[in-house]
C-alpha cells in the first residue's frame, strides 16, 4: 500500500501500517521531510514514532518517494493523508491538497485501484472525489474510493493508530469493506469496533467527534468564567459532574482552551459546510464554542496584565509552553503562542520556553523572545505563565523558582498546580476558574 501525505497523520499511519505487517511506500512532495523520513527520522516530535519508523525503514518494509508514478506502480491501495487547513480569509477548509493528491494518483493509475481518504474533509467530498477519479484516471470505473477518517491524538498517535477506539469505513462495496478489514485485521481481532456506513456519514462522524470534543472543552471553560465571577472552583465542579458516567470527566479540563491543527479549523470548516448545504442554524452553537475558546486566550493576556498591576509594557514575562499540548512539538493555532504574542504586542518582554517546540515556535512567531531552558525563561520574570502542561511544568514547586524570578506571581493556564502550595510560599497564584 501507499500512504500519500506523510505529515503528523500520514507518517504515523505509514509506520503503523508497516508495524501491522504491510509493505508501505510513503509519498510526499516535501523534499526535506522525505529526506528525514528516509533516514528513519521523524520531522516532528511524536512519542514512540521515531523508533517505529526507524525499525521499519531498516527492515525495508517502509520506503518513501515523491513519485506518483512509482506509487501507482507500487500498489493498488492508497491512503490519502494530506492536509486540509483553514482557507485564508474564510472558515472553509482548503481542499486544494486533497484534490491534487487524488487527481495525481488517479491520473498515474493505469490499473484499477482503491483510494482511501483519511484526511478530515467537509461532508460531500468523497462523492465529489469518486466522480473526479473515475473521470481523470486511465483506469476509469476501476477506481474505487472509501472514506476512513482518522481519530488519532497527537502525543498518543502511535497507540491510537495501532489500537484505535473504532474504525469507520465509508463504503457501500462489500469487496472494499473486506479489503479494509484485512488491512486492519490485527486491531479488529483485538476487538476494535468497526462501523461500516455510507460516505456522508463517515465524513460526518469525524466532524461531529471533533465538534463534540470542542464543545466539551468550551462548556467547561464557560463554567470557569461563571466560577470566576461567583467564587467557585471549576476543577472541583468538573470532578463532581464528571462522576456522572453520562457526562464523564475526560475533556473537562478548563484552561486556556483548545488549539492545534484540528479542533479549531474543523469546527470552522463544519460551520462553513453546514452553511453551504443550508443547515447553518444546526451548528450556529459552534460560533459560541469558538468564541468561548478564543476568550480564554484574551482572558489569559488580561490575567497576566492584572498580575503585573496593569502595566505590561517593558515587563518581563516567562511563558512556559509553546506547543498546543504537551508531548507534541506542534504549534499550529497554539493558545500558548497566541497569548505570548498578545503580551508581546502590549510591549511585554516575553521569554518563551518549551521542551520540544522551540524550533517550530521561532519559525511561526519570530518576533517573540525565547529562552533555551526553564531557568533562563524565569530568570528575572515578574510573572510566570504556565500555558502548556508538560510534565516538567506540572512538577514545578515554588522552591524551583524562588531566587530566580523578580516577582512571585504565577498564572496557571492549565490548572495543574496546587494553589495552596504556591500561596503558602508567598506567591500570587491565579488559575482558570478557581
Ligand atoms: N494531526 C492529527 O492529529 C490528525 C488527526 C486526524 C486527522 N487529521 C487530518 O489529517 C489531515 C492531515 O493532517 P496533518 O496534521 O498530518 O497535516 P500535515 O500538514 O502535518 O501533513 C500533510 C502532509 O501532506 C503533504 N502534501 C500536501 N500536498 C501533497 C500532495 N499533493 N502530494 C503529496 N503530499 C502532499 C505535505 O507535504 C505534508 O507532509 C488533515 O485533514 C487533518 O485534519 C490530522
Ligand atoms: O480537557 C481538555 C482537553 C483538551 N484541551 C485542549 O484541546 C486541544 C486538543 O487536544 P486533543 O484533542 O487531545 O489533541 P489533538 O491531537 O488535536 O486531537 C484532536 O484532533 C484530532 C485531529 O482531528 C483528532 O483525531 C483527535 O481525536 C482529537 O482529540 C489541546 O490544545 C488541549 O490542550 C483542553 O483545553 N481541555
From TrEMBL:
Residues 318-419 form the UDP-glucose/GDP-mannose dehydrogenase C-terminal domain. It comes from the Bacteria. Substrate binds at residues 151-154, 206, 251-255, 259, 325. Pathway: Nucleotide-sugar biosynthesis; UDP-alpha-D-glucuronate biosynthesis; UDP-alpha-D-glucuronate from UDP-alpha-D-glucose: step 1/1. It catalyses: UDP-alpha-D-glucose + 2 NAD(+) + H2O = UDP-alpha-D-glucuronate + 2 NADH + 3 H(+). InterPro entries: 6-PGluconate_DH-like_C_sf (IPR008927), NAD(P)-bd_dom_sf (IPR036291), UDP-Glc/GDP-Man (IPR017476), UDP-Glc/GDP-Man_DH_C (IPR014027), UDP-Glc/GDP-Man_DH_C_sf (IPR036220), UDP-Glc/GDP-Man_DH_dimer (IPR014026), UDP-Glc/GDP-Man_DH_N (IPR001732), UDPglc_DH_bac (IPR028357). Its EC number is 1.1.1.22. The keyword NAD applies. Belongs to the UDP-glucose/GDP-mannose dehydrogenase family. Catalyzes the conversion of UDP-glucose into UDP-glucuronate, one of the precursors of teichuronic acid. This is UDP-glucose 6-dehydrogenase. It comes from Desertihabitans brevis.
Amino acid at each position: 500500500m501507499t500512504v500519500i501525505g506523510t505529515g503528523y497523520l500520514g507518517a504515523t499511519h505509514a509506520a503503523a501500517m508497516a508495524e501491522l505487517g504491510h509493505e508501505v511506500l510513503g509519498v510526499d512532495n516535501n523534499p526535506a521531510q522525505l529526506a528525514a523520513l528516509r533516514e528513519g527520522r521523524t520531522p516532528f516530535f511524536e512519542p514512540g514514532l521515531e523508533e517505529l519508523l526507524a525499525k521499519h525503514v531498516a527492515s525495508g518494509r517502509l520506503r518513501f518517494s515523491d513519485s506518483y508514478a512509482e506509487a501507482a506502480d507500487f500498489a493498488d491501495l492508497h491512503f490519502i493523508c494530506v492536509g486540509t487547513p483553514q482557507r485564508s480569509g474564510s472558515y472553509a477548509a482548503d481542499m486544494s491538497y486533497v484534490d491534487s493528491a487524488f487527481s495525481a494518483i488517479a491520473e498515474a493509475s493505469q490499473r484499477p485501484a482503491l483510494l482511501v481518504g483519511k484526511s478530515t474533509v467537509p461532508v460531500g467530498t468523497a462523492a465529489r472525489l469518486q466522480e473526479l477519479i473515475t473521470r481523470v484516471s486511465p483506469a476509469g470505473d476501476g477506481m474505487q474510493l472509501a472514506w476512513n477518517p482518522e481519530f488519532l491524538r497527537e502525543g498518543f498517535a502511535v497507540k491510537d493508530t495501532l489500537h484505535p477506539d473504532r474504525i469507520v469505513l465509508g463504503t457501500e462495496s462489500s469487496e472494499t469493506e473486506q479489503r479494509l478489514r484485512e488491512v486492519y485485521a490485527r486491531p479488529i481481532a483485538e476487538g476494535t469496533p468497526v462501523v461500516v456506513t455510507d460516505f456522508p456519514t463517515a465524513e460526518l462522524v469525524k466532524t461531529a467527534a471533533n465538534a463534540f470534543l470542542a464543545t466539551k472543552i468550551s462548556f467547561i471553560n464557560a463554567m470557569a468564567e461563571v466560577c470566576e465571577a461567583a467564587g467557585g472552583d471549576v476543577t472541583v465542579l468538573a470532578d463532581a459532574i464528571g462522576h456522572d458516567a453520562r457526562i464523564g470527566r475526560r475533556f473537562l479540563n478548563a484552561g486556556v482552551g483548545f488549539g492545534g491543527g484540528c479542533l479549531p479549523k474543523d469546527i470552522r470548516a463544519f460551520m462553513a459546510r453546514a452553511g453551504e448545504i443550508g443547515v447553518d442554524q444546526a451548528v450556529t452553537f459552534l460560533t459560541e464554542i469558538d468564541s468561548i475558546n478564543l476568550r480564554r486566550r484574551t482572558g489569559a493576556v488580561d490575567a497576566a496584565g492584572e498580575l503585573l498591576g496593569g502595566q505590561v509594557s517593558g515587563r518581563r514575562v516567562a511563558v512556559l509552553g509553546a506547543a498546543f499540548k504537551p508531548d507534541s512539538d506542534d504549534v499550529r493555532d497554539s493558545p500558548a503562542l497566541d497569548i505570548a504574542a498578545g503580551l508581546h504586542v502590549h510591549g511585554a518582554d516575553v521569554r518563551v520556553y518549551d521542551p520540544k517546540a522551540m524550533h517550530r515556535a521561532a519559525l511561526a512567531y519570530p518576533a517573540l523572545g525565547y529562552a533555551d531552558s526553564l531557568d533562563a525563561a524565569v530568570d528575572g520574570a515578574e510573572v510566570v505563565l504556565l500555558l502548556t502542561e508538560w510534565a516538567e511544568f506540572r512538577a514545578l514547586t515554588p522552591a524551583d523558582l524562588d531566587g530566580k524570578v523578580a516577582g512571585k506571581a504565577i498564572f496557571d493556564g492549565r490548572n495543574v498546580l496546587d494553589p495552596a502550595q504556591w500561596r503558602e510560599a508567598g506567591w500570587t497564584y491565579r488559575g482558570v476558574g478557581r
